[in-house]
Specification:
This protein has 404 residues and is of the alpha/beta class. The protein is built from nine helices and 25 strands. The protein folds into two domains: 193 residues, FAD/NAD(P)-binding domain, CATH 3.50.50.60; 134 residues, FAD/NAD(P)-binding domain (3-Layer(bba) Sandwich), CATH 3.50.50. The chain has a five-stranded parallel sheet. Strands 11-18-12-13-14 form a five-stranded parallel sheet. α1 packs parallel to α7.
Length: 404
């Protein structure tokens, strides 16, 4: 006999995974009858990817099979792309040809790097937006020909957080690939803004600039890219940089599925949600993570980050079941904001507050970053149902410790 209530969670990233586990936890709390509510995750990949680590050289710990995380909690899994959402009919269509109805929906399909229509970009640019994309970049780097002068140079476009972290890792990755055959790697970080780390504020920027210098990363600001080919990058100024590698890290946009609802979107393509993560104007629909613009306090909206995606997912899962079963919901506000930026061999920089005041740097901040990337953002990997549901509690973590 089919369940009387169906919850679909679209996406298995930081928001989607925790929404599904949070929903399962809430069912337990409410002592829902066995089989009364079906929770199913629809994801284009059968994995939970630790996306924020894609700039690193070793990605072996960054892909976790969903069956290890969802099966113990009794959560269903469907591997397919979502091709359409009809909020009026309360249905979702997928690439396997199916149409699935829902009683409640959690949209958590994340974001994608925004690549403009520049000559050669689609054919020759790499990115670290996805695990597969990052692995493609690494395979390319390992295939570089040390006898080709262009192989020694990589251009990173976008001097935001992802671009900076990627640029800081590339010199060693290039050196390892080229085998030290008398080749000196060169990494060039390009951004149209006049300063690198333009969103990081006056306190952190000098730390970032010093780290880029230590890592021997050249910066070219006030510049854009005009075209790309296999062995060169042409800048908007007309300068041509011989380079066999271009990594595009400039700008993120919410998954275009947000447009399926016919509702206003913000400049990043996100849907407005209330404090309970309900999409304003779409009955029975919640959203979490990069597709949702949620208020974190009276002045600031959520940012596209696992820092906000994970708690948004937990609260969305709690609330979607609460709403479905007529139980009280919880409002989400997060009273703190931090940024811990990996600077490769130069350490890291840790900032507090929306004005990003530096509180830790160098090796001390790097130790914090390792804990975040290797422990804090991971779900329990024991396959234990109780541990998974305990981790899905709608509690706000304290900020990461930043040392003395």
């Amino acid at each position: 006999m089919p369940p009387s209530n169906r919850v679909l969670v679209l996406g298995s990233g930081f928001a989607g995974l925790w929404a599904a586990l949070g929903a399962a936890r809430r069912l337990d709390e409410l002592n829902a009858a066995q089989g009364a509510v079906d929770i199913t995750v629809v994801s284009s990949q059968p994995y939970h990817d630790i996306r924020v680590r894609n700039y690193e050289a070793d990605l072996s710990p960054c892909r976790i099979p969903l069956q290890e995380l969802l099966d113990p909690a009794g959560i269903g899994r469907i591997t397919a792309d979502v091709t359409g959402i009809d909020a009026t009919a309360a249905t979702v269509t997928t690439s396997d040809g199916a149409t699935r109805g829902y009683d409640r929906l959690v949209l958590a399909v994340g974001s994608t790097v925004a690549k403009p229509n520049l000559p050669g970009l689609a054919d020759y640019a790499f990115d670290v937006d996805t695990y597969d994309g990052a692995m493609k970049l690494q395979l390319h780097i390992r295939s570089l020909d040390a006898t080709d002068p262009a192989s020694a140079t990589a251009v990173v476009v976008g001097a935001g957080l992802t671009g900076i972290e990627t640029a800081c890792e590339l010199p060693q990755m290039l050196a390892d690939a080229l085998g030290g055959a008398g080749v000196t790697p060169r990494v060039v970080l390009v951004d149209h803004n006049p300063l690198v780390g333009s969103d990081m504020g006056d306190s952190a920027r000098p730390v970032i600039e010093a780290a880029l210098a230590v890592n021997k990363v050249d910066t070219m600001t006030g510049e854009g890219v005009a075209k790309v080919d296999a062995r060169s990058v042409t800048l908007s100024s007309g300068e041509v940089i011989p380079a066999a590698t271009l990594v595009w890290c400039a700008g993120m946009r919410a998954n275009p599925l947000t447009a399926q609802f016919g509702l206003p979107l913000d400049r990043l393509g996100r849907l407005a949600v209330d404090d309970y993560l309900r999409v304003e104007g779409a009955e029975g629909v919640f959203a979490a993570g990069d597709v949702a613009a949620a208020r974190m306090d009276d002045e600031h909206l959520s940012v596209m980050s696992c820092q906000h995606g994970r708690p948004m997912g937990r609260y969305a899962g709690y609330n979607v079941v609460s709403d479905l079963l007529g139980a009280p919901m919880l409002s989400l506000r997060i009273p703190w904001y931090v940024t811990v930026l990996d600077l490769g061999p130069a350490g890291a920089v840790y900032t507090e507050g929306w004005d990003r005041k530096v509180v830790s740097r160098g090796d001390v901040a790097k130790a914090t970053k390792r804990v975040i990337n290797g422990e804090r953002i991971y779900p329990p990997l024991t396959g234990d149902r109780a541990a998974l549901l305990a981790a899905a509690a709608p509690n706000l973590q304290a900020p990461p410790a930043y040392g003395q």
